[in-house]
Amino acid sequence: MEEKYQLFQKRIKEAASFLRLKDFVLKKIEKPDRILKFNLPFKRDNNKVIFLDGFRVQHCNVLGPYKGGIRFSEKVSEEIISILALEMTLKCALANLPFGGGKGGLKIDPHLFSEKELKKISSLFIQKIYPFLGSDLDVPAPDLGTNEKIMLWMLKEYQKISGKKDLAVFTGKPLNFGGSHLRKEATGLGGVFLLESLLKKLNFPSLPTLAIQGFGNVGSFFAKFAFEKGFKILAISDESGGVFSSEGLNPFEIEKFLSLKKTLSQFPAEKKISNEELLSLKVDILVPAAVENVINKKNARNIKAKIIIEMANSPVDLNVDEFLKKRGILQIPDILANAGGVIVSYFEWLQNKKKQKWSRLKVKKMLKSKMVRNFERLWEFYQEKKIHPRKCAFILALLKVAQKIENKI
Ligand code: NAD
170 partner at 20 to 30 Å CA-CA among 58, 114, 140, 145? Predict the structure, then answer.
């Protein structure tokens, strides 16, 4: 992770030097505004006391309140949460949202805790950070290992301690507790809207073939919306392995199969494949929607897809970006491609603030228009500069943040 952190900082520096940013502006972006770091003593169901490491990093709020998920994962560390908070600042800026970047995390494997324990842990987490939260201050959301139920527990604890009834302090809530339509589907759906715009720009001659890695929230919704639009999905995988069909897979059938407590690799298809095989399939579009760094120095030369839509966070090792570009592979960077989730979070926040409830259709239309506009802005810049699309994304995002910093300091 240390190497990734340094490389990320290096890419930020390169984008800053392209923009000729003043030193103090870059310094402000490189360091988070605040790191809340705490130790959470917790008595388990069996009365054993354990200590959990928790973090909330507030990176930069020049564009608006800090916004970003809270993750429960064994891989949480101050460094990882800090880099993710910085990425959120860039993602919100690129998506033109009135939010800054933040991220939180607790170092636990949520699967090893009972529901009662998770509820208590969620409340304790909020007790540690609640003075720093607020709908105009810092607005958390779900992330890896957390979900709408946990957001509701957190919101209830926040309301209890602060005495405030404000729903907009958390997003990703259940629909009947101030949540928004399409919040769950938003990241996958946003990615499909972006893909459609991209194919139009490229005058892509036919409906493309796809391989999708990951069938969780992002991958499954991406697959289902892409399937509904008629795209041919040749392969899908998850951590159990993958399946391939030259005729195309139906993600709705896969979903039904998985609901019978089966694994994806058991799905009856033409061929079983490994995750590594999926990544090197001859398809038009590769969609890594699972975990980070799956495309790296070891396999970059095997990639045969023409386009990579980065739906996961950091699925491509930054070291191989230029190599892939030289090979003529077009990468659509994560901070643009998977912004659908934070965009609908923004819609949820806005609905709560205005005390409104938007229809599913309205949210869908607004998500589409935002994803398309954001993509077109980046595409224009990319066409003009011909530099790596990730660099384009960093430059456009940094420009927005930097202008505000200069005016504010
Ligand atoms: P999830 O936990 O719902 O699903 C993850 C999927 O990846 C599962 O199908 C799992 O089996 C698979 N997987 C795990 N390890 C794997 C491996 N080693 N090889 C292949 N597949 C593996 O998570 P999610 O919410 O779908 O998030 C996926 C990615 O998208 C993450 O990088 C996340 O940070 C990013 N992301 C998610 C959202 C969102 O709204 N959920 C928004 C932006 C970015």
Answer: 114
In angstroms, rounded to a whole number, what is the distance separating the alpha carbons of residues 54 and 72?
A: 9
Query: 122 is written with which tokens?
Result: 């969620």
Q: What pLDDT score does 2 carry?
A: 64
Crossing angle of helices 340-354 and 78-94, in 10° steps, is 70
CA 214–ligand 1 middle distance (angstroms): 6
pLDDT number for residue 5: 78
- Chain centroid, CA 318 distance in Å: 17
Residue 101 near residue 28 (C-beta atoms within 8 A): no
CA angle centred on 265, ends 263 and 267, rounded to 5°: 80
The catalytic site residues sit at: 103
Measured in Å, residue 237 CA sits from the centre of ligand 1 at 11
DSSP assignment letter at 270: S
The protein residue with its alpha carbon nearest to ligand 1, atom 29, reads 312
* Tokens standing for residue 22: 């003043």
Q: Ligand 1 pocket, 344 CB below 6 A?
A: no
What is the best residue among 80, 81, 91, 238 to mutate for testing ligand 1's pocket, by most ligand atoms within 8 Å of CB? 238
Pocket test for ligand 1, best of 90, 217, 257 (most atoms within 8 A of CB): 217
User: Which residues lie across from 38 on neighbouring strands?
Assistant: 54
Average pLDDT of span 227-239: 97
Taking the CB of residue 45, how many other CB atoms lie within 10 A of it?
10
Any ligand 1 atom below 6 A from CB of 255: no
Q: How far apart are CA 281 and CA 70, in angstroms?
A: 34
The answer on pLDDT for 207 being more than 90 is: no
Question: C-alpha distances in angstroms, 98 versus 19, 131, 161, 255?
Answer: 22, 21, 27, 36
Rounded mean pLDDT of the chain? Answer: 96
The answer, as to whether pTM is greater than 0.85, is yes
